Predict the 3D structure of the following.
Amino acid sequence: MTHPLHELMRDSLDHCVKCTICETYCPVAAATPLFPGPKYVGPQAERYRGGDANADASLDYCSSCGICTQVCPQGVKIAEINSQAKAELAQRRGVSLRDRLIARPTLAGWMGAPVWPVANWTTSFGPFRLLLEKVLRIHRKAPMPRWAGRTFQSRTRSRRKAPDPAAPQRKVVFFHGCAANFYEPGTASMAVQVLEHNGLEVIIPKQGCCGLPLQSNGQYDAARAYVRRLAAQLAPYARAGHDIVATSTSCGLMLKREAHEILGVDDDDLRVVSERMFDICEYLVMLDERGELKRDMQPVDMEVPYHAPCQQRGHGVGTPAMELMAMVPGLRASQVDAVCCGVAGTYGLKAEKYDIAMEVGRSLFDQVRASGAALSVCDSETCRWQIAAATDRPSVHPVEMLHRAYGLG
Amino acid sequence: MRRAVVIGAGLAGLVAGVRLAEGGMRVTMVAKGVGSLTLSPGVIDVLGYAPGRVDSPREALGAFVAERPDHPYARIGADALEEALAWFTDRVPQMRYRGDGPRNLLLPTAVGVPRPTALAPASMAGADLRGGGRFVVVGLSGLKDFFPRLLADNLARADLPSGAMVGARHAEITASPRPGRADVAGQVYARALDDPAFRGEFAAALRGLAEPGETILLPAVLGMARAGEVFDELQERVGAPIAEVPTVPPSVAGMRLNTELTGAFARAGGRVVLGVEAVGATGSDGRISEVLVRDAARTRALPADAVVLATGGFSAGGIALDSYGGLHEVVLDLPVAGPPAGVAPLSERHLDHQPLMASGVAVDGMLRPVGPGGEPVWDNLHAAGTIVAGAEPWREKSGEGIAIAGGFRAAGAILEET
Ligand SMILES: Cc1cc2nc3c(=O)[nH]c(=O)nc-3n(C[C@H](O)[C@H](O)[C@H](O)COP(=O)(O)OP(=O)(O)OC[C@H]3O[C@@H](n4cnc5c(N)ncnc54)[C@H](O)[C@@H]3O)c2cc1C
Ligand code: SF4
Ligand code: SF4
Ligand code: SF4
């Protein structure tokens, strides 16, 4: 687990003044006594790790949501330290088959895609889910996405264009991530149409998984291999001057920062890609600031609760989704007062953590239900699945609201 | 719409942000982390020691600033301070701030020392020691870092105004949201008390503890989001007056204030970006046009017509000391006013006079940071809070007053410019 950046993250623990601010913001510590909190498992316990010393196993309840790092006034990289220590813990204990499987959306995706009607039936079939819980420890009620059949990649082969250094600004690269590829190609198509509506040509290169689920399940070597391969696929476009736009906010963040800070990947491909990577809402607001965003929006007379997932907050760009929705006439978006929905990627799927995840998200779910709105809006796919399942109403990506407003649907 | 960037999300930054947003500006607040409000006791100190204990800040302020011409209060003025405090309490109605006109209250700290403070939440004001009184200090057996016996013993020997007689004893209850544990944090109790079920259990445990004429003192954990309701209901069900005593961090009362003020900022249309560092600014003709912030992937330029610098002092990272003893303002590299030559920067005991800790940026009457000749460094840059030179808030008990009046005045100066 040692890499030069680990030392950098670790050194930051000396800045901890034990103010307990992180402890009061951690959504997991608020939900369960099993987790003693970020300061305890982070800067405090880290001093005793390394060598033969054993990490305190309560660390495993950290969901890696990253909120502690965002709120720490002293710049302690708490979540990063915890992620790295968790990976070490996982290596020492041995990574379970479950954690290997759920960490590979591409694998599960490819297994399911050709036989999707059967796959969808099994994931919604009670006895099968009980079996999954018994054998794999995946909670029987955990939200599972539905396979969409043909992948987004195979639907968009004609867009696999080469980089175009002659006109880099008119053409953007779309990075869709695994979830859109296998489960939500509709969201990805809408994103492409919204970009095109704004006069941009969209290139969709062949692309793999960013490795984030592997990282959060402690499988760092595999995660590094995945993210390096992806960076190599996208780098030629970044070098030609194309911006890269992502709808998956967590995968975008992985390429912007986490692969470097948590996995310690330090190569040129990743650097150029990270410089050019934009979350789609961030990108559209930037277009607007340049006066290039089309404002020909039709009224969408709706009230929608919006949740800024913590992965989105990690970008440090504010809440561009709220700004975009404010441009749509009639659309009344209000931001939910909650930090986390609980699922944290794959955390909330696990049988031993499902109840904690539901408790973490409780206030968010209550607010969405109380709003009476027909749907909710959120930038991250796993959060959307969790919120939709918990509130019995769809949860959509903000770009879908724009898609409606532009009359593209 | 004119744009303002506020750097820092502490009390000063939030106050400035709310006023600017209400004044019609488009405000973006950027902060490395949350401010020190969440650690503060939730009371509003204006002037507590000068250096003797202050009975009335309003009366003491004139002489105080006359002796300290470089103090932030000397720049702000007493009238602006009062206007700011009135404005502020209106913005946070759920805190239910109470004072005694121009006079300080005298409230017990977590260790039972009487501390002068100008405004306190109604849930705390009942512990005012100026008129003496009889108290039963009730500890919670599961709560860490609150010691009822220490508090009661110290209260009994406290330095009080002549004639004030205090009687104090202690008791303990075991009602706990996490039974069986001895290290439960304040916020866990507070969130549990928001829930009527635990509130009922808690009230039942308190009933009968107070003798007639006694006030129950409890650690300030009585509710988080629904604190007002929790307090009223407990008092009614227990049938005795109750007052909260602030705890060491994590401080629930500070968290309540932070939440309410952040909410007021959002409702006024302000946007907060947390977890990003401001690293500089660009501009010309004496005006900043963009603030540079470091986000997850790159350095971004935020357009700004006006900027408020509210990055706090040493503890928040607004001011840094290098290994050669050099002082630096970290975001804009502004000139820093440190201890005068020939004055020892630090003294031996922690709570003594520490001239170094008063370091910060010197400002003019519009709270614009100035250079050595007194001229503003940037015409549209204003500073507020602990970043401003000349105060030792923990000794003076002046931190909140300086932050509120400064944030209010800085925002006022910006709004007047239109
Ligand atoms: C534990 C504690 C207890 C205190 N108790 C009292 C008390 O009882 N009485 C009293 O009078 N005073 C007290 N104080 C003093 C306190 O400093 C003031 O009362 C007041 O809260 C300061 O507010 P501020 O807004 O100036 O700074 P802060 O609240 O410190 O906020 C500074 C903000 O700036 C941000 N920041 C810093 N650098 C950067 C950067 N480069 N880029 C972006 N953001 C940045 C920080 O993240 C933070 O959000 C206490 C302070 C502490 C720490
Ligand atoms: S918020 Fe930062 S400084 Fe405070 S206790 Fe947590 S890690 Fe330490
Ligand atoms: S990453 Fe999230 S769950 Fe983990 S310690 Fe930090 S705040 Fe808590
Ligand atoms: S699940 Fe959603 S809200 Fe929760 S940790 Fe992740 S991105 Fe954040």
User: Anything to note?
Assistant: Chain B has a mean pLDDT of 95. DSSP finds twelve helices and 18 strands in chain B.
